[in-house]
Specification:
Helices cover 50% and strands 13% of the residues. By secondary structure, the protein is an alpha/beta fold. The protein folds into two domains: 163 residues, Rossmann fold, CATH 3.40.50; 116 residues, N-(1-d-carboxylethyl)-l-norvaline Dehydrogenase, domain 2, CATH 1.10.1040.
């Protein structure tokens, strides 16, 4: 508990951010939080954290701030919008950016913050809500040595694996984009396989049992098709997240005219699901684009 009493800030208490804040508190940090939903911050404060009413208040209390918002636009708002952090953070403070973004945007952000005397860690995350809650997620990071010196212990408190991929921003986001390529394609492929099984009349629980013990299994099939069997499309990661993330994948490839046929198809599948009304549902709801199948009602499930 060497970090006892050390203040640290967390912005965004969603599926990942809430677990990360709790991991930091378990490690002994005095965790200050801000969320656009005041009730989320109040609930965390009831567990022993500190709820801040404004971003400026959080910046005044913490020299390391972890941002776990959805995208670059929200990060821009956090830093440079009304009541933005950038003007309130003390020189030498560290901003840890955990969103999935265009690597070039992340590179530029490091320079913008450096001009204000602030340090930056490009630190996208992976692993899901359960691993975030248990401190076992993965962080793909890139930063200057002085940023790691100030915030490295906090990164280790939030993640089982903290990969240091370079001494300047961008490398972390590049690796995360490639991870999202695989994640999106795997979810789309898993949905297609389950849909074919349903169309053929295969018992979905039996199909799930066999595939998860066979060579065709993937982490995404095992995790996401369990949601389908349970008929639970509560968004731990929504369809629109992969509309965004696979869009970033394609943007990255387009810059060097690199073909990504599987990513392109998966992106279209998530786009179709989004425009069909499933944008805010769990990303496993991409299975709903397939015609002529009857989805499980929730009684059957994996053993």
């Amino acid at each position: 508990m060497s970090n006892t009493g050390t203040p640290i800030g967390v912005i965004g208490l969603g599926a990942m951010g809430g677990g990360m804040a709790r991991s930091l508190r378990r490690a002994g940090y005095k965790v200050h939080v801000f969320d656009v939903r005041p009730e989320a911050a109040a609930a965390f404060a009831a567990e022993g954290g500190v709820a801040c009413d404004t971003l400026a208040e959080l910046a005044g209390a913490c020299e390391v701030i972890v941002s776990v918002v959805v995208n670059a636009a929200q990060t821009e708002a956090v830093l440079f919008g009304n009541d933005g952090l950038a003007s309130a953070m003390r020189a030498g403070s560290v901003f840890v950016m955990c969103s999935t973004v265009d690597p070039n945007w992340s590179i530029a952000l490091e320079g913008r913050l450096a001009a204000l005397g602030l340090l930056y860690i490009d630190a996208p995350i992976s692993g899901g809500a359960a691993k975030a809650a248990s401190g076992e997620m993965t962080m793909m990071t890139a930063a200057r040595p002085e940023a790691y010196a100030k915030a490295g212990d906090a990164l280790d408190a939030m993640a089982a694996k903290v990969y240091r991929l370079g001494d300047q921003a961008g490398a972390g986001s590049q690796v995360k984009i490639i991870n999202q390529l695989l994640a999106g394609v795997h979810i789309a492929a898993a949905a297609e396989a389950m849909a074919l099984g349903l169309r053929a009349g295969v018992d979905p629980a039996a199909l799930y049992e066999v595939i998860t013990h066979s060579a065709g299994n993937s982490w995404m099939f095992e995790n996401r098709m369990a949601h389908v069997l349970a008929a639970d499309y509560t968004p731990l990661s929504a369809v629109d997240i992969f509309v965004k993330d696979l869009g970033l994948v394609l943007d990255m490839a387009r810059a060097s005219k690199f073909p990504l046929p599987l990513s392109s198809t998966a992106h279209q599948m998530f786009m179709q699901a989004s425009t069909a009304g499933f944008a805010k549902e769990d990303d496993s709801a991409v299975i709903k684009i397939f015609p002529g199948i009857e989805l499980p009602k929730g009684k059957a499930g994996p053993n």
